[in-house]
Amino acid sequence: MGDFTDYGKYDGLGLADLVRRREVKPQELLDEAISRIERLNPRLNAIVDTMYDQARVQLAEDPSDAPFAGVPFLVKDLLAACAGVPMRCGSRFCEDLVPDRDSEIVRRYKAAGAVIIGRTNTPEFGLLPVTESRLYGPAHNPWELNRTPGGSSGGAAAAVAARIVPAAHGNDGAGSIRIPASCCALFGLKPSRGRTPVGLDHRDAWQGMSCSHVISLSVRDSAALLDATAGPEPGDLYRVCPPTRPFLSEIGRDPGRLRIAFSSQPLLGDYVHDDCVRALETTVQLCSELGHEVEEAAPVLDGESLRIALLTMIAGEIRADIEELEEVLDRDAGSRDFEPATWALGLLGSETPASVFVNAVRTLHHTGRQIAPFFDTYDAFLTPTLAAPPVVIGALKPSGVESMALDVLSGLNASGILNAVLRTESITTMLFDFIPYTPLANMSGHPAMSVPLEWNEEGLPIGMHFMGRFGDEATLFRLASQLEEAHPWFHRLPPLHGAA
Question: CB–CB of 147/130 below 8 Å?
């Protein structure tokens, strides 16, 4: 088992091409991926469920002409149902939740030939920009094991960065594809709202802010997998115009002279690390050398009102999730069933008047209309993906006193006091100081991508974030492809990887 030593030298399309040319058998790819999971996952904690038997069954049924025929693939333990396999959403309360059918996004991955071999680690309900649930424990970054791989698709990113698989499913409600892509030196694109299906069970996840796609080693894999999964399913609430041609055909196409705005000012936070500012300056210079017109500019936004609106919306969604799970699992939920912050948010949601919730959603959705004129002038908006390099595991957890307060107040169902605690700077502002850029694209519905262009002196990755016009992933793919060729990253390996 596991003797295809060149496995990690190829992206997904490259592996599928080897299969089509019969230079390698699909079973060899599966065996190598399994071998890498068994060797690396005890240190990474990236994969929380293996699906080896299901993968072997799927392998026997794979269409040989599919674009990713025989390529091992992982799906996140959130919003990606696989029939007969537990989907716990990173929560102890969901340990008995076993879907009876595949979600639409999973069916489309399988139709593209991707062989699903497991589920990846996520924080409870995907709430945090780090992956450190009490159920699964922390996922580790292969670039430095005491650092976070980001979240909420942190397990997916750690597995791809370690070359266990060339691409993995993620979902993105406030940056959950792009945050881990930045932390792990990978490419991560959040599509436009409505580009990919959320699934009939979650047709309006986080009021349209959440969507699914992948984290990948290469830009072209991301484009090809978006081709394979794009398009609505019956009942979808949001739709976007289909592309004029396949996204894969944009790879290598000249983007032309783009007008790119850039800024290091934190849109939703108050802090940016010097390493991220320096990385941005280097990227601005690279874009200029590639012939693009770069100019310092940013949309004008009220960061505080957006933070409050986002917190209010998420609290309402979490409360609704808890109540739905109580019905599905036929048992009552209590504070001991969830992590303190999750239960506290749910309590806050239960006490939020409907008008306050609706006005919060309106504030978030208004962001799209507010920044649309900005993209009449500029083709892309460039910032660091994050305000800091990947942080040490545990750095974004509430302090001992705050954690104790959440525990006690959650147990007492003291929602009024919790409202004040959750809005204190030491908890919420700490999170937004790490992710002051990524939520904007979720609020507005615009596509955005993290491109792995820089590393700091410690050897930690720093992603660069580009946001584009609504529905215009094509321009982002052309630009990303150009950056990938000018400043390649594929063969830069973390210390912990499959071939080591």
Answer: no
3-state class (DSSP) for residue 255: coil
Q: Which backbone phi and psi does 404 adopt, to 5 degrees?
A: -65, -40
Q: Which residues are catalytic?
A: 76, 152, 176
pLDDT digits (tens, 9 = 90+) for 38-88: 999 999 999 999 999 999 999 988 667 899 999 999 999 999 999 999 999
- Cα–Cα distance list, 411 to 123, 132, 315 (Å): 21, 22, 17
Torsion (CA) 481, 165, 167, 263 in degrees, nearest 10:
-70
From residue 203, how far is each of 104, 233, 235, 354, 394 by CA, in Å? Answer: 11, 10, 8, 20, 33
259-262 vs 380-384, strand pairing mode: parallel
451: left (phi over 0), alpha (psi -120 to 50) or beta: beta
Q: What is the number of helices (H) and of strands (E) in the chain? A: 17, 13
Residues 452 and 480 sit within 8 Å (Cβ to Cβ)? no
Q: Per residue in 349-378, pLDDT tens?
A: 998 999 999 999 999 999 999 999 999 999
Q: CA–CA separation, 273 vs 490, rounded Å?
A: 25
**What are the tokens at 445?**
């519905």
